[in-house]
Design a protein that fits this description.
The complex is a heterodimer of chains A (101) and B (245). With 101 residues, chain A is an alpha+beta fold. Chain A has three helices and five strands. In chain A, strand 2 and strand 3 form a beta hairpin. Chain B is built from ten helices and nine strands. In chain B, helix 1 packs parallel to helix 2 and helix 4 runs parallel beside helix 5. The longest helix of chain B is centred in the middle third of the chain and has 20 residues. Classes of the chains: A alpha+beta (101), B alpha/beta (245).
């Protein structure tokens, strides 16, 4: 299965745990695309650096736009404002790290 | 490489820190031209201050005014008064009569509508008028981020119809952030992905964030330049015998 890796930059004033981040991303996918849509994205958090405010996410190649739209729709976490910006997308983890991190 | 434009930043003009943060964030996200909504009576020094901030950040400022008026008569009056003072004029159409007038008036660059789906009046008649008057349909993305549940569902549905009408009548679409805070700013590709949810293909979404707004700004800057006479005609040299040399 072809995959896409996304480098994310998290902009927020509070500390965000790994579980909170993946939770908020799944919520966004479910809200926008429902359970059927969510079953197609194969979303997983590959890496998360809470102090550096960056993360690497993996998803299905065909669901990239769905994932990007879901990420863009996240505006808060536990009632506090947050923005998650996709800083780059790549087909391999190696090239993602080389280009964007 | 595309030059991305966000024509609708809405920071509090009275707070220079917020203005600077939003312009900087916008630049970091890849926008090289930003339009900032200014009050109709914005003094010259405020505009110069904004230009200064933009040049420090490395971006280009577009002055813009949003006309939110109740009647078409008021709209005509304000267009007469303000058209030459701002590079981009947007009409926020909160009633059908204002929407019709704005769509057929060539002085209006952008047709904007409130986030409430019941108060969006961009229908086929509106599309036909806008197409003839070279107006563009502006879609602010901030409400799509802030609304939840039924309201967002209805807005998506309404935007899908508007995009269909705009494509049918070849009305250019402009996607803008409409952000009042940094947290509502997203990259152009993220906006394009969100726009695909109301059936605007990503390629057209990216064009709505680059070529379409850029065309408006370039056209208007040309018109506001001192040598402009009429579409296609401008003074390139002044003197007694310009053709002789």
């Amino acid at each position: 299965m072809r995959r896409r890796y996304l480098a994310l930059k998290i902009v927020g004033e509070q500390f965000i745990g790994k579980e909170d981040l993946i939770g908020v991303l799944w919520d966004a996918v479910l809200r926008l695309f429902g359970e059927y849509g969510a079953s197609r994205v194969n979303l997983s958090l590959v890496e998360y650096e809470a102090e550096g405010n960056y993360a690497i996410l993996r998803c299905s190649h065909g669901a990239l736009d769905m994932v990007r739209a879901s990420i863009a729709s996240v505006t808060e976490i536990k009632g506090k404002p947050i923005a998650i910006n996709v800083i780059g997308v790549s087909g391999t983890l190696k090239s993602l790290r080389k280009k964007f991190l | 490489m595309k030059r991305f434009v966000d024509l609708h930043l809405r920071p509090m003009i009275s707070d220079p820190n917020q203005v600077k943060n939003m312009i900087t964030k916008s630049y970091e996200l890849g926008y090289r031209l930003v339009g900032i909504s200014l009050p109709p009576d914005a003094p010259g020094h405020t505009i110069r201050q904004l230009q200064q901030i933009c040049s420090e950040v490395g971006t280009d400022l577009v002055t813009r005014v949003d006309l939110a008026l109740r009647t078409s008569k008021e709209l005509l009056g304000e267009l007469r008064r303000l058209r030459r003072r701002f590079e981009v004029v947007s009409a926020l159409c909160a009633s059908k009569s204002v929407a019709r007038q704005a769509a057929k008036d060539r002085r209006v660059d952008l047709l904007s509508f409130p986030a409430d789906p019941r108060r969006r009046f961009f229908d086929p008649a509106e599309g036909e008028l806008a197409s003839k008057a070279l107006a563009s349909l502006e879609i602010d993305m901030a409400p799509l981020l802030s609304l939840r549940g039924g309201l967002r569902v209805r807005l998506f549905s309404r935007l899908r119809r508007e995009v269909e009408v705009a494509n049918k009548f070849k009305v250019p679409i402009v996607l803008s952030s409409g952000a009042t805070k940094e947290y509502f700013l997203r990259t152009p590709h993220d906006y394009a992905a969100l726009a695909s949810l109301f059936d605007l293909p990503p390629s057209l979404g990216l064009r709505a964030l680059s070529d379409n707004p850029l065309a408006i700004v370039e056209r208007n800057r040309g018109k506001l330049s001192p040598g402009y006479v009429a579409p296609g005609i401008r003074v390139i040299k002044e003197g007694k015998d310009c053709l002789g040399e």
